[in-house]
Write a structure and sequence with these properties.
This protein is of the alpha+beta class. It has a single domain, classed as NADH Oxidase, CATH 3.40.109. The protein is globular and about 55 Å long.
Length: 224
Amino acid sequence: MQSHDSSSLDDYIEYSEEEMLARSSQFYADIKRRHSIRSFSSRPVPKEIIANCIKAAGTAPNGANHQPWHFVAIHSDDIKKQIRQQAEEHERSFYQGRAGEEWLDALKPLGTDADKPYLEHAPWLIAIFSQKKGGIHAEDKNTNYYVHESVGIATGFLINALHSSGLVTLTHTPKPMSFLSKICDRPENDRAYMLLIAGYPSEDATVPHHARVKKSFDEICTFL
């Protein structure tokens, strides 16, 4: 029989049911204040805050613990300018018809368009890459499993960490995103998954009413 090394769950903390209820209620109250915004301040955010949030993302559950992700935190004005130029070029063709009428109609209530000034104004862009091959060690070249799901969960952790730190975010997925791999000088094994904009909201930042409409609890959950 093959043996497996393990360690005790010595960092788990159990709470009373009353505290669990209070903590879950507080978490919901806090996370429902999270909004995607499209108007960022250029106020600086310390690198250490972004690093801590990315460390938190790295703790996300994932297939076979291969951790099939890489995060590129971008602060350089020159690189942000390159990303904006490339992204807006793709976005223009998207909004000029490549997306299709149904998709464009779905975006109209959000007021989005091909102009993405936040890609330069925000203090940080975080390019998130998924990895087809890898493993628990950096030098591993094994097949990664449940890559899309794993990176999606890690991205959720990252968004939550940034929100909990007092920052606002926006998820951006220009199509195609291969230009991110070139600008960020990532190897062929890395595939651009998402671009996350992070920073403070500008003084005139708003949230579209459409974005505040959430399905009721009964519509999103069933207890059996």
